[in-house]
Structures are given as structure tokens and as C-alpha cells.
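Each record in this resource describes a single protein on a pair of labelled lines. An example record follows, reproduced without changes.
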Amino acid sequence: MSWLTWTYPATATAALLVAAALLRAPRAADDEVTDPYEAAYLRDGRRGAVVVALVALHLRGTVDAGPRGTARISGPARDLSQPLQRAVYEALYRPSGVNTVAASRPVRRPLDALRGRLAGAGLIRGDRRWRAARVLLCAAVLTVVWELASGPLPPWNSPLRTAVSAVPVAAAVALWAVPRRTGAGRRVLQRARERFPRPRTRRASPESVLLAVALHGEPALRLAVPHFTREAGLLARRDGTESLYGVNHWHSGGGGSGTSACGSGGV
């Protein structure tokens, strides 16, 4: 039996073990999330936080729906002290869709700060560890593929080699599906939803509207700002915007990550 039969799977297994350690959920304090931007990021990643900021600006009268599913500036910015609101307003120097705004340079800074706070609280997995784990998962799979393509082994070795190689590949697929949001993050989000249930009428303060949109998403948007939601494209998903949920959408029981190429970013 060739030593290559075991060398490549052993290398892949080592990469998988390190990736699993990196994806291990950090300890989290048993806190509550009441900030609408943090709650939106926890529920729906960067896009969710930007949608909340757009709704906040719309309720202030400074942003309205633009042409072809975009948002545009409709009034002057007055006392925009919230960092994400201010960054989103600056990003709308021309009408833009939600995904374009979320990817703009000024908006990425406050979004990164949101992600850092949630990661520090143990509610999502940290960015560096997440990226490193995904690189290792890709390396593990590529190692197995390289081994299978490295040259034919004797026929009596082929079934064994195939069986041994399938194990790390299956493990890599399982670890790839680990959600960006941690178990603590799911519990915190669930408690917040129970404490602040979805509103049934439009009679609510702006603060209540923002928190409802952050926690409940589409139903709250359609109730609170139906015209703006429809005309500004707040529900459209035309790209691979990351989500905390699972396969391309932070939706695996309430938490995940966007599916991306090997080594690419998470949420």
C-alpha cells in the first residue's frame, strides 16, 4: 500500500481540525440586543443593517425611493449622529440600490464596527477566524482532489483510496455549512423577537419601527413603509450578499453565512 494513500488524507484532516477549532463558538455573555443596527446585522448581516439605516433616513425625510429600485437623497442631513445613518447618507450622492450602498467604502467602516462588537460579544464568529477557517477548508478539499488526480494506484487500492478521501471532503462540507452566527447569537435574537413581537399596526414610534424592521425584516417593512420598501428595492436580492444564515442566505433556522468561493469573506 502506497504511503500516499494516507499522507494526503492526513494533511487534509489536520487542516480540518484547525478549521474546526477556528469555528468553535466563543464564549458569550447572556446579554440582550436592543440596538436596531446590531439586531439587524445579527439577523441579516450587512444588508439588514443598511436597510434599517435607509428606513431611519426615510422616516426623517432625508431619503426617498429613486428610479429603478434605488434610494436617493430627498432632504438635507440634520444632526445625523448615528454613524451608519451618516455613512449611508454620504453613499447616496447618486441614487443607489441597497447592495451598492452596503459595498461602498464609507459604509463599510461602521458595518465593520458593528461586526466587531457582535463578534466581541460572542454573537457571531470573528472575521479573521472565519476567513482562515474557510481557507483551510478549501485547502483540505484541494488536497484530496490533488491526491486523487496525482496518478493511478493499483486497482486493489482504488476502493480504499476513494473511501479514505471521502471522509475529509464530507467533513469539509459540514464545516462549511457552520453558520456565522453563534448559538448564543441565535438565542439572543430569539429572546429579542419574543420581547418585541412583530407590530400589527402602523401606529408606532420611529424607534419601534426600526427595531421591528431589524428583528422581523420583510413583514415589518411591508407594514411600516410599504411604498418605500417596494420602490427602493429593499426586498430585492440580485447578488450574493452575505447573510448570517446558510447557503447564500447570515436561512438555516435563523443564522448563517453567505456561500462564497474558497477563501472569500463572510459577513
In short: The beta strands are 63-65, 71-73.
